[in-house]
Amino acid sequence: MSASSIAGIAVCLLALAVVAASTALSPLSGHAGNAAVRPSGLYALDPCLHNGTCPSLPSFVQGVYVRVNWDQVQPTKMGPYNWTKIDMTVAHAKAAGHQVTIGVAPGSSSPHWLYEDGVPHFSMTWNFSWGPPRCTEVNVPLFWDPKFLEAYTAFLAALAVRYDAAPTVVGIKVTGVDAETMETVIPTKVIYGCGKQPDDPIAKWIAVGYTPEKILLAWSTILEAYSAAFQHTSLVLMTGPWPFPGIDAQGKRTPQPDYNLTRTIQQMFTDKIGPDRCAIQNNGLSVWYHYAPPNIPNGTEQGAQALWYITGDPTCRMMSHHKPCGEVWVMNKTLQNAILYQDKYVEIYLVDILNPKFAGLLTAFAKHFVPPSQ
């Protein structure tokens, strides 16, 4: 694509940004009393390494999202905690004038000492191109187990002691009912090709005593823990239109997956946290897809994370695997979706942040988050 074409796309993005600028949030500032500053702007997704090494980021970046696994932060029950990656990311961001959001993944990334303490687990078959080898059996603690909830609540309290008062930190990702990622989604689909028989997660959930009521009780406890621990920081729910297992209150299989539970979990989050200090985040932003949860209360912030990276992806995942997928065109359409859906912040993969082909588009897009007076 020619330089003039890229410039033209950037102008289009900036025009869209002007339309939506009146709803944008102000840039980074410190916390004032109990008022939570919420995420705003163009974020680099997890730019720092686990040893704390952080790259220099382009000037259009306004925030960074750091994500770590619970088992990396708390490898042993009695500690010490390993805050290295989060600490270094926060320090680097503070020096650069960036906001920070933090996510710590439980689910399949929960520490092994939980199971040594007797926490029961669900055994999921890994069926992704990333993470453990495909067809590996991976443990996920049962969310409703009292020992799990006690341990997870204690960890959240420790996380809050360290970061709730940090002015640079403006968002904590809320999770706890999850499996392979931090989104509120757990295995529901039959997996083929990992054994002589198909792997049926619904049968596995029934075997460990799953019911929707247990999920809601666990979620209520987890929300209470986040709300109590983080008094000065916005809370962010990463979600999507993913159903829960089709299992009824008696633990029996139903013909259809459970979308009502998905909506109830989202509603409980906004009700408990309040629209003035919560955000709903769509983690599937792409060319063809943008999820906007229904019935979001007025004032609730909406953000997004790119579904995948664009640079060097031969599978064209951001185009639902349709080819060809010109990288600049895909980035342009993805950013237009974010503006049209009035996302207040967007997380982009580091490889795309650093791709010079996207610099013009991302610079124009970042201006969407700066009020006209600035």
Characterization of the model:
There is one protein chain. The protein contains 11 helices and 10 strands. With 374 residues, it is α/β, with parallel strands linked by helices. The strands form 2 sheets. An 8-stranded parallel β-barrel has the order 1-2-3-6-7-8-9-10, surrounded by 5 helices. Strand 7, helix 8 and strand 8 form a beta-alpha-beta unit. The N terminus is likely disordered.
Compact description:
With 374 residues, this protein is an alpha/beta fold.
**Uncertain ranges:** 1-34
| Rg from Cα | 21 Å
Largest sheet: 8 strands, parallel, barrel
Structure summary, number of beta strands: 10
Helix content: 25-40%
Shape: globular
The N- and C-terminal alpha carbons lie at a distance of 32 Å
Mean pLDDT comes to 88
Distinctive features:
alpha/beta, two-stranded antiparallel sheet, globular, disordered N terminus, 374 residues, 11 helices, eight-stranded parallel β-barrel, single chain, 10 strands
What's the layout of helices and strands?
Blueprint: H1 3-20, E1 41-45, E2 63-69, H2 70-73, H3 84-96, E3 99-105, H4 113-116, E4 121-125, E5 137-141, H5 146-163, E6 169-174, H6 201-207, H7 212-229, E7 234-239, H8 259-273, E8 278-285, E9 301-306, H9 327-340, E10 345-349, H10 350-353, H11 359-366
Parallel strand pairs: 1-2, 1-10, 2-3, 3-6, 6-7, 7-8, 8-9, 9-10
Antiparallel strand pairs: 4-5
Helix pairs in contact: 1-9, 1-11, 5-7, 7-8
